[in-house]
Amino acid sequence: MAKRSGGGAIKIAVAATSAVRRAGLESIIRNDPQFQLAGSFGGVATLVSFARNAELDVIVIDSDSIRDLLLEPTLDAGIVLLTDVSDARSISRLLRSRVRAILPRESDPDNVLSAIYAAYDGLVLLSTSTAASLAAVYGDQPEENEAELSEEITSREMDVLRMIAEGFVNKDIAARLGISEHTVKFHISSILHKLGASTRTEAVTLGIRRGIIPI
Asked: What distance lies between CA 59 and its chain's CA centroid?
């Protein structure tokens, strides 16, 4: 997980050619006490020039220009992209260029917030349509068996699952692991998916059966 600049607020810069969209992004960031708006720009190139020396945590970009978004693959900040680009090839290129969240341009503020937290915590967040585009390309791959699914669970997800089994709520898990509650929710969603569980209780039961949770 990335470290917050100076141990304080998450430093964020935004870029959007539309002044209206840019103002909307600025408002989302200013209304969250954990965020600091470090800069706002009308073009990606200007933002990139600023970001080289600004030690940003997250960059939020509203753009449909793939060329713009591939300008600076070495930036340290996680990138949140609001775009209508949806073809699998472009999405794959973006994900290889530090884009960590891809959402439609008309996404509501709550989804933008979740995307920022995901990018900050080193996670990937995709909209349903974006994920479906990738699935359409890779959907012909053979399904994995139950044992393989269990192996996919990461060490951090195991920590979360074991804390759930011990009765910890999301807030306590976040505090113990030093991550945000948004990130805890992402981990839990991933755990449920990988185990094929519909509830936290069912996930714990399956975890015990598969030896993920010691008894």
From this structure: 12
**Could you tell me where the DSSP H helices lie in the chain?**
19-30, 44-51, 66-69, 88-95, 109-120, 128-138, 146-152, 155-165, 170-177, 181-195, 200-209
- Asked whether the CA dihedral 23, 28, 33, 34 is positive or negative, the reply is negative
pLDDT tens-place string over residues 5-51:
445 789 999 999 999 999 999 999 999 999 999 999 998 888 888 98
- What pTM was estimated for this model as a whole? 0.64
Beta bridge partners of 102: 81, 126
Range(s) for CATH 1.10.10.10 in the chain? 146-209
- Average pLDDT of the segment spanning 196-202: 87
Cα–Cα distances in angstroms (integers) from residue 135 to residues 25, 85, 121, 132, 141, in the given order = 29, 16, 24, 5, 10
| Through-space distance between the first and last CA atoms of the chain, rounded to whole angstroms | 30
197 in Cβ contact with 208 (< 8 Å)? no
CA atoms within 13 A on the CB side of 101: 29
Topology (CATH) of 146-209: Arc Repressor Mutant, subunit A (1.10.10)
